[in-house]
Amino acid sequence: MLGLIGGTALERLALADSRQRSVTTSWGAPSAPLTLGRLGTAQIAWLNRHGDSHSIPPHRVNYRANIAALAEQGVEGIIALNAVGGITPAMTTGSLVLPHQLIDYTWGREHSFCDTDSEPVLHVDFTDPYDRALRQRLLAAALSAGLELVDGAVHAVVQGPRLETAAEVLRLERDGCDIVGMTGMPEAGLARELGVPYASLAVVVNPAAGKSKAEITLEEIGRVMAAAAPRLLTLLEACCQ
Prior knowledge:
The chain is built from five helices and eleven strands. It is an alpha/beta fold. It has a single domain (2-239), classed as Nucleoside phosphorylase domain (Rossmann fold), CATH 3.40.50.
C-alpha cells in the first residue's frame, strides 16, 4: 500500500473501490478520514493534510497524527504533494518538480515523535530527506508517461499561512533554495523517524514574491493548479502501475 498526502496541489483523488476509514492515533486524529482504494494496480491510502474542507492552515496541521495514521496502515512509502512558489529560473510556473533537498524555516510545530518520557530519543540520519528509491520510482514513472519532471530542487519550507516578502525570497535564494512551500516539514522528518520512505512531488503554482511584477492571487494559483492536475494525476497513475 502506498500513502498519498494531498493538499493545495491536489485536494481530491478518485480511487477505485474506495472507502473511508476514520482513525485515531496516539497523537490525535489526522486531518481527515483516510480514503482507501486503488489507483492503477496499487492499493492507496489517501489523506488531505488540510482537511476535507481545506480548513486547516499549514501551521496547525497535526503532522504527527497524519504520518502516524498512514504508518499504522502499513504503507510502503509516502508521496506528498506540495504547491510551491518558484524561486530560481528553472522553476517555471506549472512545472512538476521532484525535490532532492530541503531547508526547514518553520517554527513552533510539533516536529518529532520524541516528545514524551515513554518515547525513545531518536537521532535519525536526515542527510538525504527524501527517499532515493521512491524518487527513482517517480522519475521512472514520469519517463514512461512522457511527462517532464524537474529532477532536483532545494525545497524551502516556511511557516505560512501568509506568503513571503520579496526580501525573504531573496534570502531563501541566497541560501540555495529553488522552491518555497509551507507543508513539507515536519512531514519528511516524522516519516524518517518512523522509517517510512517519503518523497515530495511539487507543483510550481506561482513565481515567488519579487520574482514577477504581477500580484500573486489565489485566482491565478487556482488556474495553474487546475491546468497541472491532469499531468499530476497521470504521473501518479504511472507510478502506481
